[in-house]
């Protein structure tokens, strides 16, 4: 399965041994794993290439020359993994996996004015979102092949990450290098909840050893639709100060609605709109655990966290996996925290630590029992680990 002796200049790793996938000629930037075809992996690099690997084979399947510029993000079309989207600079290209040998895109979208950082497709495969360096998010209508909406004037800096909320079909959540996490109604093109992570900090115990970088949002992850019966409706945030935040955004949503509904109108009356929470629901919210902070004191990262993902192997969503500039990947067993009847100790969350010797650019998981964690770091080699 794994190579046991590989000549490398990297610092020796701890944790499981990696299988190494070779084919890139530049630093790897992103990766995705098929759920419909277990073992099929695509990864991108700074030379504008996408490499396709089948874990059942030793050799590279295909190399696609997509662009002369670095590729920033990849995603499958939800529900139809024959279609893959690739972003480079300000463009999103669309490919059919059955036509990879020709390298010719089916379509391309050029709506972003600044460099795209992440693209993602919603659960119904009707919209594609592209977040860029200008702080804008373009919502593209896939079926009509046109720009549906531009979300702007909320992020004050680079918008680094975007995710659709599968349980709220007209909403997305974005994160940026202004340390803000923003929930949007993209049908109306406006935000309805802004969290400033640089100012809004939960009570926490000692954070001795935590890095002092700003709480920039480098990446976010939300549960996929088929995980929602096992997980809370949460958002996981990879932060520049080394923290992995796990936030119950439904509680945040209710708090925003509650605050909005209680704003006084002229004449001293208040808004109701049927959304004022009952005393019972207010008490439930007060008793509910709404935010988990996985930081240095929990065995977490000592430098900026660059990426986060939910595990799709075994019990889907059981683990949160994060990678960082401290050259480490952390596997977190987090799910008991939001269960009110569970007693949690901060030392119990870290399930596995993998020291890579390289800064982590991106990671993803596969639905297989072995070789189920794929890591792109600042080398030309894609690493694949088995997480039990």
Strand content: 35-45%
> What integer is the average pLDDT?
86
Could you name the CATH homologous superfamily?
A: YVTN repeat-like/Quinoprotein amine dehydrogenase
CATH topology assignment = Methylamine Dehydrogenase, Chain H
- Figure out the total of helices: 2
Helix content: under 10%
User: In CATH, what is the class?
Assistant: Mainly Beta
Keywords: WD repeat
Protein name: WD repeat-containing protein 53
Pfam families: WD40
Region (Disordered): 257-288
Provide tags for this entry.
388 residues; mainly beta; Methylamine Dehydrogenase, Chain H; four-stranded antiparallel β-sheet; 2 helices; globular; disordered N terminus; WD repeat; WD40_rpt; WD40/YVTN_repeat-like_dom_sf; WD40_repeat_dom_sf; WD repeat-containing protein 53
Give a verbal description of the structure.
The protein has a single domain (19-262, 280-385), classed as YVTN repeat-like/Quinoprotein amine dehydrogenase (Methylamine Dehydrogenase, Chain H, 7 Propeller). 46% of the residues are buried. The two termini are 15 Å apart. Mean pLDDT is 86; it is low at 1-13, 203-209 and 262-287. The chain has 388 residues and is mainly beta. It has helices spanning 249-261, 279-287; strands spanning 19-21, 28-33, 40-45, 49-54, 60-65, 71-77, 80-88, 91-96, 107-109, 116-121, 127-132, 137-141, 146-151, 159-164, 171-176, 180-185, 190-196, 217-221, 234-239, 244-248, 291-294, 305-310, 319-324, 328-333, 350-355, 360-365, 373-377, 382-385. Helix content is 6%, strand content 41%. The strands form 7 sheets. It has a 4-stranded antiparallel β-sheet, with no helix packed on it. It contains 2 helices and 28 strands. WD repeats lie at residues 298-333. Residues 259-278 have a biased composition (Polar residues).
